[in-house]
User: Fold this.
Amino acid sequence: MEHIDLPALTRAAGTVRLPGSKSISNRMLLLAALAQGETEIRDLLDSDDTKVMLEALKKVGVGVTVTGVNAYRITGCGGPFPGKSGDLFMGNAGTAIRPLTAALALSGGHYRLSGVPRMHERPIGDLVDGLRQIGADVRYAGKDGFPPLEIFPAAVKLAAPIRVRGDVSSQFLTALLMALPLTGETAVIEMTTELISKPYIEITLNLMSRFGVTVEREGWQRFTLRGGQRYVSPGVVHVEGDASGASYFLAAGAIGGGPVRVEGVGRGSIQGDVRFAEALAVMGARIEMGENWIEASAPATGKLKAFDLDLNHIPDAAMTLAVAALFADGPCTLRNIASWRVKETDRIAAMAAELRKLGAAVEEGADWITVAPAPTYSRNAAIDTYDDHRMAMCFSLVALGGVPLRINDPKCVAKTFPDYFDRFGRIAAPVIAIDGPSASGKGTVAQRVAETLGFHFLDSGALYRLTALAALRAGVALDDETGVAAVAATLPAEFPGDRILLAGDDVTEAIRAEEIGVGASKVAALPAVRTALLERQRAYRRLPGLVADGRDMGSVVFPEAPVKVFLTASAEARAERRHKQLIGKGMPANMRPLLQDILQELRERDARDAARSVAPLKQEEDAELVDTTPLGIDEAVAAVLDIVRRKLPQVVS
Ligand SMILES: Nc1ncnc2c1ncn2[C@@H]1O[C@H](COP(=O)(O)OP(=O)(O)O)[C@@H](O)[C@H]1O
Ligand SMILES: Nc1ccn([C@@H]2O[C@H](COP(=O)(O)OP(=O)(O)O)[C@@H](O)[C@H]2O)c(=O)n1
Assistant:
């Protein structure tokens, strides 16, 4: 089985831009499909579940055009689907099959809906019962109460209120609410049991009203849709970041020190799961919130507090709390989470089984689970994920408690968060930042340290050198800030093995030329160029860790790096090294610059790097000085590894 091994980690800090919300993405797709007019949907989640929805919509005659990255134009039908037959595969996407079943049942066609084996175990009977009450012809093609389903044309009548249960899944109510405007008549829905997961209904009502249909609500018992309303495209809509996905990063900040900031959700969010932040606050985490961001850090005391909470309002994000409980100061109870039993897997059973593998004492009931933390946890446990994206994501947090572990079938995160482990690495992978002046030995030492530790390596200077070379080749003047920044933003660079390619051309040697070094230091003084290269550098931060060398690794690019080294040497020693390097490369004596000219050039470059307004070269307060003037390469590497051993004992054995 495929797996990912997570090393023992100690710290998480950084910023994560969230992918779009699954709940909002699939609701918006369906509403746009039923609406009159064209809807531009931006920031749609790119995941298995949204692909399932897009494919199904195309099959029943909805116009779908890709307009950009995660951006689509949906040409609405202005009513029922025009495609009157279709065989639709729904994978394991609950947010697709439920609302589609309702909309198809009211579209007057003949359709089949099926999914993966687990989908055929997830109940849909309450929804089918609701639809049958108004005359829809929905039949079970397999076991009663479960997909696969077969839908036939039927005459629908809305005489009496539709009565549905609310205690199995709120998605049944969402499905009916979104589909009923297709009838054009007044419809009333009454809940026969207490409605769970109410915040998801709020999302549904909110989005329906954005598409022009309002619902009158009496408490959470009775919902009335006045006849004659129809969906109309609101034009351009943006999908909020995924609040359930935010929970992993916020918990990472609470467990791993922080601050970790998520962007895409905040005070202005319509998703109930943003209230996960409140639960973390109950655990003592420090939370800050803006309109469009949330930030979490560990409690001031350093230790998370035990909790006993009703989590009915945040069932998905609550899974993250069950794992955070491992690091609390006492047993933690999660209550009112019956819906866990009918999700991608039986999440209560799965959670209990996997937490026990780590050594936690777990008790479970029909709708609750209690997790009692242990003083230490088993190392290298193999965690099963049950084809459940949330199991994989929440168990990654265990590593932040300094517990290495294996996660089986990590690709199941594709359901909602395909690049989850890369993003997790970008806040949790340890970074060793090595800054210093030219020819101090940064590149040589950083590469050797990376090899010793099995870490990734970033030679940030190479990106500035590539930018200078690419600008020169494109005829852009090196002081044209906008022009050079545009070159930097779209740099077609690749790094296969130890080669460096620019637009496919091998420039490994070319970028080391002295004039390119000078050009690099010129373009590096332009703020817009530095900004353009920032995210590209941060993307190198991956598990198990990164060694990065440059001028501003510790100050700007990775300010949260747990190890920062300022590597230097006297200007004379550095000039001599460069001189030797040129001799070593076989440069003939008549072409070689004189030692004193190299020294002069070096001093000018030092001055330019130190004097510039953005990210000037200087030793940060929290960086440790290593003066390599009297050291050979091996000694310099050993000096840096000593610092790493002291600061990150778990990564150097
Ligand atoms: N501690 C050292 N003692 C002697 N020579 C060194 C030392 N560190 C690096 N060198 C040599 O100096 C040259 C410049 O090192 P490099 O790693 O390219 O520096 P930087 O990345 O800081 O510009 C290389 O030829 C390298 O082998
Ligand atoms: N993080 C970085 C790395 C390099 N640079 C700039 O890019 C130039 C070339 O970087 P480098 O590390 O390849 O150069 P050398 O130090 O090897 O000469 C430096 O002179 C800096 O001006 C930077 O500004 N910030």
Notes: The domain at 22-238 is CATH 3.65.10.10 (UDP-n-acetylglucosamine1-carboxyvinyl-transferase; Chain). Residues 595-611 form the longest helix (17 residues).
